[in-house]
Specification:
Elements (H helix, E strand, L loop, with lengths): L8 H7 L38 H16 L3 H13 L4 H10 L2 H7 L6 H9 L3 E3 L2 E2 L12 E4 L3 H13 L9 E4 L4 E4 L14 H8 L2
Antiparallel strand pairs: 1-2, 1-3, 3-5, 4-5
Length: about 210
């Protein structure tokens, strides 16, 4: 499974927006985006960079969404092709698909402090969907799906520690959480409004639809 293993703060700096790649740490003064001397794009001579071209603006929008959800190029294009075949707006359908990823749902339920941590918990088999263990972070949840923690002591301890921190985001309306049972339910399909970063979907459609 391909994954990015480099420094993640430079990704937020490159996109100019907090991508919440380190969970609660991104909301503290330790975040690189909170420091004026590090909030500029990474690399030498960033102050000399020229105004972005039309292509560059659309590329940055696509890269921002990819990095926020932690998907690679091939995965992203596959999701885009699925969104193209849907009946609704392609950009909105794309965001809905990305929001339905299991690692994103686990993170938003507070079972993990970040999407990277959520992927690790899923791959190591700590979580179940409808009573069956799922070890694919890209698994797409459906309406009514129930996300639970394996009954093993190790899994329960790991997830309960994350939930007990209480530092995660507020549970969004399309999800519900029973913290005592460590059980989350998908009550509705997500919408583009549930995405927690500003996204111009039209730019992504223009970029990927070429």
């Amino acid at each position: 499974m391909g994954r990015y293993i480099g420094p993640v703060c430079r990704r937020c700096r490159r996109e100019g927006v907090k991508l919440m790649l380190k969970g609660i740490r991104c909301e503290t003064a330790k975040c690189a985006m909170e420091r004026s001397w590090r909030s500029s794009p990474p690399g030498p001579h960033s102050w000399r960079r020229r105004k972005a071209s039309t292509y560059g603006i659309r590329l940055r929008e696509k890269q921002k969404v990819k990095r926020y959800y932690g998907v690679l190029e091939q995965q992203f294009i596959r999701y885009f092709r699925i969104a193209e075949r849907a009946h609704g707006n392609t950009g909105d359908e794309l965001l809905t698909i990305l929001e339905r990823r299991l690692d994103n749902v686990v993170c938003k339920l507070g079972f993990a402090p970040s999407r990277r941590a959520a992927r690790s918990a899923i791959v190591h088999g700590h979580l179940q969907v409808n009573g069956r263990r799922v070890n694919r972070p890209g698994f797409l949840v459906k309406l009514g799906d129930k996300i639970t923690v394996r009954p093993s002591e190790r899994s329960q301890k790991l997830i309960r520690a994350a939930v007990g921190d209480g530092g995660g985001p507020a549970i969004q309306p399309w999800l519900s959480l029973d913290a005592a049972k460590l059980e989350g339910v998908v009550n509705a399909m997500p919408t583009p409004d549930d995405v927690q970063i500003p996204v111009e979907t039209q730019y992504i459609v223009e970029m990927c639809g070429r």
